[in-house]
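Incident log entry.

Two folding requests arrived from the same account within the same minute. Monitoring flagged them as a possible duplicate submission, but the sequences differ. Recording both here for audit purposes.

Request one:
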Amino acid sequence: MADKRIRVLVAKPGLDGHDRGAKVIARALRDAGMEVIYTGLRQTVEQIVEAADAEDVDVVALSLLSGAHNTLFPEVVEALKAKGMGDVLVIGGGVIPEDDIPGLEKAGVKAIFTPGTPTKKVIDFIKENVNK
């Protein structure tokens, strides 16, 4: 099944109420031929992992502007591993200070995309890194 479309869950963990960036990314990924599932605002780690499992996604794209990324992003990575889904590509985006990025990558988030990143860069990263 070489033509399998990449399935991406776009999720907004925590109490962040701003989703414009997530919607822009979701539309760009969809327009690039990926299947996109958007979970909506204020999702718990458990809700995100359950949705990723139910939807059998290849990628979990987290978006966060509230400042809780150092806690919530690694929790999603760990919860996916605990559910046997450690092969799911986890990426993050939002207002994330440069100084926080190495720690997030060490925690298993494969890439962080900050405001102003061209959507093509996100699309290309997913296509190059998803486990097909």
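Request two (distinct sequence, not a duplicate):
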Amino acid sequence: MPSYDFALILSRPLYEDELDPLFDRTHGAVTVSIISEPEHAERPGNASCSWPGPTLAAAIMEVVEHVEVSAPGVHVLQVEADPLLTIRDIAERVGRSLDSVRHAITGSRGVAGFPSSEMSSAGHRLWRWSKIAAWYGIDDPQLIEAKPTVQAINGWLALRDVVPDVAPAAEEVTSALSLVIPHVA
């Protein structure tokens, strides 16, 4: 069974006392942002993981349930399945050395035009995997599955948030996606 990398945007970060239930349910495989003071609960939180599943949709829906059951009052608002990577992550994924990736970024060796970083966090730049994979000519089937899956699940999450009585059950969404993804991805 493949593992899928994705991140969830949460309605708020988790409190420290909410970590144990999540850890128990996920065996520590989900990393979340935490807070200790209620005044910080105004900002969104995040959760990220590499989770096994028969499909990306099934993996996402399982982690959504784990997070929301573990931390009452926390709702998943959005999902992102095109991860942001550090230079080290890029090197591992493309099978190159750190120096090789650094030279590609600066353009000092090889083909020019390395993708721009998406953001900088704590002095470290982060790049979007889909852009890196395209630049290196890597055909990642999980990225092909990710775009329509994430679009559909984000639509479902929005519908669930706005009109919960109309939103289908998570299992129905997963089932529907498993029928159509092979044809659109």
